Amino acid sequence: MTRAVQTAVVGVTGYAGAELARLLLHHPRLKDKPPVFAGRVDEKDAARGGVPLEEIHPQLADNNGSGSLKVEPFSWERLKDRGVEVLFLATPHEQSREWVPEALKHGLRVVDLSGAWRLSDAKNRAVYAFEDEGSEVAAATQAKAAYGMPELHRKEIAGAKLVANPGCYATSVILAVRPLVAAGIVDLSHGIVADAKSGVSGAGKAPTSKTHFMHAADNLSAYGVFSHRHTGELLEQIGICASDIVFTPHLLPIPRGMMSTIYVRFNEAQTHESVARIYREFFASSSMVRIYEKALPQIRYSVRTNFADIGFQISSDGRRAVIVSCLDNLLKGASGQAVQNMNVMLGWDEAEGLA
Q1: Among candidate residues 117, 149, 107, 153, the one with its CA nearest the CA of residue 5
Q2: Of 325, 322, 354, 327, which Cα lies nearest the Cα of 338?
Q3: Enclosing H/E stretch for 263
Q4: Closest by Cα among 333, 305, 195 to 260
Q5: Which of 205, 271, 183, 147 is nearest to 12 (CA)?
Q6: Pairing state between β 308-314 and 192-198
Q7: What are the φ/ψ torsions at residue 10 (nearest 5 degrees)?
């Protein structure tokens, strides 16, 4: 597709929504078509046509017209009147469960940043306790969803009407582990250990007792042990069982960024070159993955980029490896990956507007 398309974003007030707005406003293919921003707007603000975007996110103001953009009251009629073709939902899981089927009925292509449609197995979805679980509409919608990780599902995403954007932790671990498991060199009987750490923005914008300064600053805490919602994504996308992995997320006292340190044992001895070759071949056509062969990634190298950085070291006996995977939880772990998925859906260069 060579022409520009009209996009819309619902849920721009959050951290991921702000990054999504920034990327779309500066996307070279969308210069003449800024996104339509829609959401809940009270009567007072509706009377003035919505809330100015720069009142919500002053950092998005520029001299190219963004100051005139507003978050308008949401309605399907408004999206239709504005000619919207691609809808981004940066909304809570429950809201996306309700709105995605409606969006598809209206002929929109959807990139959903929530966890509403990521999981194909009902056992894995149970952690969300969706009220519509088992309904005919939910089953039909789930069947249309492509898991939005281009490095794994580029072909499915290209033809999809609904793309379920992956979770940030899931992206970090899946990209690091899937190539090795797919190559058949990981000894799953010894289990995989994924020790993951994320900046506070990964918990969302709404303050909680665990994300305010007094708890998060100068602290490091584990949470969601054996129960984190991203676990199902790891099982389905890596192709393993729950007994094959221990995944533990932690809260880092930094605003953004993510590091997963992953421990695996091999079926037989490997060399640094043999493992590097697996990664190079697996990601040969993936411009948003960087393989570190001579050093280990650090959060500061990937933060504020859409790159997933993967590095590793092999034990002296060649039977064990420590893999380090870093990314920005708001970009490759959320909004950047959403734009990457849009690019694939529309037949544009995958990294356009991102690199």
Answers
A1: 107
A2: 354
A3: strand 258-265
A4: 195
A5: 205
A6: unpaired
A7: -115, 125
Reported as a single tens digit per residue, the pLDDT across 235-290 is: 999 999 999 999 999 999 999 999 999 999 999 999 999 999 999 999 999 999 99
| Per-residue pLDDT reduced to its tens digit, 89-141 | 999 999 999 999 999 999 999 999 999 999 999 999 999 999 999 999 999 99
| Tokens linked to 297 | 């990634």
- Taking alpha carbons only, the member of 39, 159, 37, 161 closest to residue 103 is 161
3-state secondary structure of 245: strand
Question: Can you list the domains of the chain with their CATH numbers?
Answer: 7-165+334-345 (3.40.50.720), 168-327 (3.30.360.10)
Tokens representing 82 are: 């504005």
- Kindly report, residue by residue over 184-238, the tens digit of the pLDDT: 999 999 999 999 999 999 888 887 888 888 888 999 999 999 999 999 999 999 9
Token pair, residue 24, equals 């779309």
Give the catalytic positions in this structure. 168
In this structure, what are the phi and psi dihedrals at residue 184, rounded to the nearest 5 degrees?
A: 80, 20
DSSP state of 266: B
